[in-house]
Design brief:
The protein is of the alpha/beta class. It is built from ten helices and 21 strands. The protein starts with a helix and ends with a strand. Keywords: Glycosidase, Hydrolase, Signal. It holds the Pfam family Glyco_hydro_30.
């Protein structure tokens, strides 16, 4: 017991020493800057000269960082690994594939350290074909349940990712229940029939167990991707009353009986309907089973996440999808999505930020017919062994490379058009992500503990500052 106590004391001493060292670094001197410019003249580029803290206030706007004021913990930053994304990666030559995965999922060298990925449970609209894991009509016992189709590309790629980062968080989201469980017997639209609530709950359990047998832990599931959009292929409509009933009557109790620790997350749709998850959270019978709510931003304002947080502060929030437009502007998406997502979602209590989707090819295929997205641009475009890094790669890389899971958001003010968010990492480092939304280059200062660093950031550029 004495030896164990000594180990604990020694470990605490090391942690305190590390915290003190980082605090002194902030006072004495050195800050790194990593910059991306909208004209691509710099892309997540480390600046050669380190910045120094001084006692001098030069009169320019000040971003005050206060690590004493802490908010939510961070689970990670990343993308959806769609079926198509997995196929693009798995078809690469071995050496090129290995190099790309290290770049995406490690932080060393040029790595951006993706720490959170979302999967579609069976097909999404960026799959080559539509399928679920049990398409045998009437199979309520799920005797024909199988994830074999995922063993071609998705699971092999996931296993390689897990070798690089065994602690990566994985979220599963279904685009539809099996068609035979639905009111219209179709992969597109329709709703889940109440008589199949328990069968569908067991479908989730089967999925989680099957993935676990492959060495893949599903940390969380959302109940339905975009439950208010029935026009996608595949898709399923689930009004909040239906989702509440499904959670309290079937999914929650079935997960509890199965002893699953997998989190249940509500909604998974746009910021224009915060009342959707709030109505479910108001149901005392559904409430205990729910970890939190997930949002997209194709409609509404990101501040809707704070509306839900303020009403239910003990429940978590997640940002799970925003696309990048294959016909869009790199400069506009770099600036806009960093402002709205990397900064905006986190400042509104999200524990993660995910974009859609991880990889694409030059033709933006595969995607399903009659509702699949033919304009969705990946974080990277894979063309044989050639890799093009697109806007979302940098939008997320400006955080994922520096902000490890377990970091916490800390306080920072926002001078006009200097949108920003600050973090304290588990190692005690401070990270500040800033977008200059001014029409011209902007000089400003970063202040902590009374010491200031003077910096300059180009118009609509993104900067990450680490000390």
């Amino acid at each position: 017991m004495k030896a164990n106590r000594n180990i604990v004391i020694y470990t605490l001493a090391l942690l305190l020493a590390g915290t003190t060292a980082y605090g002194q670094a902030g006072k004495k001197g050195k800050m790194e800057a990593w910059i991306s410019n909208p004209d691509r003249s710099a892309l997540l580029q480390k600046q050669k000269n380190s910045l120094s803290f001084t006692n001098t206030d030069n009169g320019t706007p000040v971003i005050d960082v206060d690590a004493a004021k802490q908010f939510q913990s961070i689970d990670g930053f990343g993308f959806t690994l769609t079926g198509g994304s997995a196929t693009h990666i798995n078809q690469m030559p071995a050496a090129a594939q290995d190099a790309l995965l290290k770049e995406l999922f490690l932080t060393a060298g040029n790595g951006i350290g993706i720490s959170y990925i979302r999967l579609s449970i069976a097909a999404s609209d960026l799959s080559a074909e539509v399928f679920t894991y049990d398409d045998v009509a009437g199979d309520t016992a799920l005797a024909h349940f199988s994830i074999d189709k995922e063993k071609v590309d998705l699971i092999p790629v996931l296993k390689k990712i897990l070798k690089l980062n065994p602690r990566i968080k994985i979220l599963g989201s279904p685009w539809t229940a099996p068609a035979w469980m639905k009111t219209n017997n179709s992969f597109i639209g329709g709703s889940l029939k109440p008589e199949y609530y328990h069968a569908y709950a067991n479908y989730f359990v089967k999925y989680i167990h099957a993935m676990k047998q492959e060495g893949i832990t599903i940390d969380a599931i959302t109940i339905q991707n975009e439950p208010l959009h029935g026009g996608n292929n595949p898709s399923m409509v689930m009004q909040w009353q239906e989702q509440a009933a499904f959670v309290k009557e079937a999914l929650g109790p079935v997960f509890k009986q199965a002893g699953l620790k997998t989190k249940i997350i509500l909604y998974d749709h746009n910021c224009d309907k915060p009342e959707y998850p709030m109505n479910i959270l108001a149901d005392k019978d559904a409430y205990p089973y729910i970890d939190g709510s997930a949002f997209h931003l194709y409609g509404g304002k990101i501040s809707a996440m704070s509306t839900v947080h303020d009403a239910y502060p003990e429940k978590h929030l997640y940002f799970t999808e925003q696309w990048s437009d294959g016909k869009g502007s790199f400069s506009r998406e770099l600036t806009g999505n960093t402002t709205r997502l990397t900064i905006g979602a986190i400042r509104n209590w999200s524990r993660n930020v995910l974009q859609w989707n991880l990889t694409s090819n030059p033709s933006l295929t595969p995607h399903t017919d009659k509702g699949g997205c033919g304009q969705c641009l990946g974080g990277v475009t894979i063309d044989g062994t050639n890799i093009t890094r697109n806007s979302s790669y940098y939008v997320l890389g400006h955080a994922s490379k520096f902000v490890a899971p377990g970091s916490v958001r800390i306080a920072s003010n926002e001078p006009e058009k200097l949108d920003n968010v600050a973090f304290r990492t588990p190692e005690g480092k401070k990270v500040l992500v800033v977008v200059n939304n001014n029409p011209a280059e902007q000089q400003f200062q970063i202040r902590e503990n009374g010491k200031l660093v003077a910096v300059t950031l180009g118009s609509h550029s993104v900067g990450t500052y680490v000390w």
